[in-house]
Amino acid sequence: MRLSFGLEARQVQTQKLAPRMIQSMEILQLPIMALQERIEQEMEENPMLEVTDRDETLPDEEGESDESAVTSRTEDEKELVVKDDSSNAEDFERLANMDNDMPDTFDDFRRSSNRIQEEGDRQHDLMANAMERPESLNDYLLHQLAELDIDDDVERIAERIVSCLDARDGGYFKSSLIDMLPPDHKPGDVAKAEAALAVVQSLEPSGIAARNLRECLLNQLRDDMEFSDKMRVLINGHLDDLAENRMLAIQKKTGYSIEMIQKIREELHKLNPKPGASFMETYVPLVTPDVIVEQNDEGVYTVRLVDDYLPNLRISEYYRRRLMDPKATDEEKEFIKRKVGSAQWLIESIQQRRRTLTRVSQAIVDYQKKFLDEGPEAIEPLKMQQIADQVGVHVTTVSRAVDDKWIQTPRGIFPLRRFFVFGTQSADGEDVAYETIRLKLQEIIDKEDKTNPLSDDELVDELKKEGMGVARRTITKYRKKMGIPSSRQRRDWSRQS
Asked: pTM of the predicted model, to two decimals?
């Protein structure tokens, strides 16, 4: 009997904690300004929330000071946070009645809301006076997505895919569809992810969100294009031959005449291999960092969160007392319990966001110390799973923590995702970041004799002199990713210029 009750209790607790976990993940994913807007909205909807001064006691970073003014509650009140916060059609009527009965409390709430509104207006004025921000690739796609009538689940995944696209990389989708799904996804959700990618690929600019150049070009073809069928044949099977100008090889394999191949090639040149690149801006975007990195006199880097924009929340003391008042009706108490539970979830989710974002950011900074000391060329290969293992959280938690967040460092302001880079192993077994190889490769090619450019084998030798023993096939792969032509093509271009 005892074991049965214990199991039942655990099951009930798990069911009641689920909404809290969902809200915590949503709050974690919000950047600082979006979180401020979320708090303003919650305060408008929940009279149990009130703003307290910043100098009042706050819980420590590890969340051990539950006795503080923000989270303290009696033993009886602790039951509130696990009550179901389901909607009720009579909430507004009850709220209106409580407003009439307790005008002073609601006047205080309105004053708090007005302070939030004034701060929001001030931030709006600052942004209005700043240089207008051109529409980004992500915004452009999201606006189109909002106009489509598609399944809600597919739309959410599509929004996640859009958030992964980078105009600097041409707008290619380089992530995995599995990564777009929650950890507890069902087998059928993979089909929804594929449908979501198809939706994003149907948006403008044509060819966006492709997983490779072949898919990008194929997605730009239309049946009314001249030579569309023949273009599809060349894209599917002869892109390498076209890049190397092997016309005779294409003629032999397809049976097309040289003249026809030339015409098809001219039509292919009208397609855009980097459809997202037109959204690249040369201006410095107006961003608000969520994290600031500071270096002390001993050279140690530490992080601190930028949360001065956020109001300091607590549960209304009036409603705590009202809840314990024997004169309060059961109906009123039930309403307060639900609203207090919702408010407590929000407060604790914000605290959890602080702890997680701080720990994840500090772990990233500790790992990328050479980047901060020496610059971008010293960045280390880093995967989200490494940070997740170090912090002791799921990899999706790390992904949400860094999503749309910016960090201010002595080297400049960067998106947190910037510090996660792929890499390879050098000949001596050391890890080398792709970014490091890319920068050095670009430097070597920039300095080469343009009339006698370096072959890939010679580039391998040059990188070895720099302590980077990278295989020839790796150099070829990176060179192509960077859009650098072969040595023969570079030589031909040099002669033409």
From this structure: 0.47
